[in-house]
Predict the 3D structure of the following.
Amino acid sequence: MTLSTDDIEKAAGLLKSGELVAFPTETVYGLGGNALSDDAVARIYEAKGRPSFNPLIVHMSSLSEVDSYALLNDQAVALANAFWPGPLTLVLKRNHDCRLSLLVSAGLDTVAVRIPAHPVAQSLLTAAKLPIAAPSANRSGRISPTQASHVQEELADKVAMILDGGSCVVGIESTVLDLSGDMPVILRPGSITKTQLSDVIGTLKAAEHHSDIRGPGMLESHYAPSKPLRLNATDIKSGEALLAFSSPVKGAQCVENLSDSGDLREAAANLFRMLRKLDASRAQSIAVMPIPEEGLGIAINDRLKRAAAPRN
Ligand code: TXA
Ligand code: MG
């Protein structure tokens, strides 16, 4: 169970080369990937087998690192000083030039960040010199792992390495506090309580009925393209831009191809960036080619259906 510097260096090298590494935090084990890489983040969703893109927590090693990706307001700084490193996750606005994968935010303009206290997590972050995206290291719908053996049972074939740091002392996931709106909101209760938080920042509220946000569709501020989307398009109508998959249908002036080779992981990695690009184009609406309803295609289609749904 005692990890050597070599183990940490090896894990850091794997993260840098785009692989996934499971690692202990004080709350639960995380399934980690390079948060700057769309491909690595797509692999995380693939490994978890999530039917939708739930935004992920990005782990960082210092407040200055957080500051380089997200907007730290006074409340965030006060909470960071009080509780970081530790089991508190803050949802913050992404900086304008934020280099974090859009997929970690599931297309939102916010990002959830935390500085974990576990020494293995800290050593890994320091050695990798990367922000690490990590949801709990369980398959979708299963309970969060608090020992390396739990990760081994569920995800052994999906990760390049599992760092065994013993049992997690907290054992439940971090408290998630959204600071991106007018009023701070607890999105997920955790070991840091509402009272502890309000002692530092005053008034805040708990999200109405909540256990875990199951999908970004449940987030009020979810990014949706401003242009109408037409799904399962097999032709192009006048004024449409095209979000293609595999061989593009002919006729659109503006085309983004999720994956030339029909690779669903590549498509997931490109999805939010390409949707934004087409949304910013001159076209009046966006035609989307059919995406196979399998593997990561299920999460991609879920997201596209939400984006195509009528707005209120
Ligand atoms: O203790 C923990 O938080 C563990 C360890 C590994 O750090 N991680 C964890 O991650 O529980 P995950 O992905 O299983 O849960 C992340 C939670 C979800 O409820 C998600 O909806 C919310 O954080 N979340 C992430 N990004 C968000 C965002 N931009 N806006 C709102 N909620 C967000
Ligand atoms: Mg989880």
Observations:
- The longest helix spans residues 264-279.
- Residues 5-206 form a domain with the DHBP synthase fold (CATH 3.90.870.10).
- The CA atoms of residues 80 and 155 lie 32 Å apart.
- The chain has two domains: 5-206, 229-308.
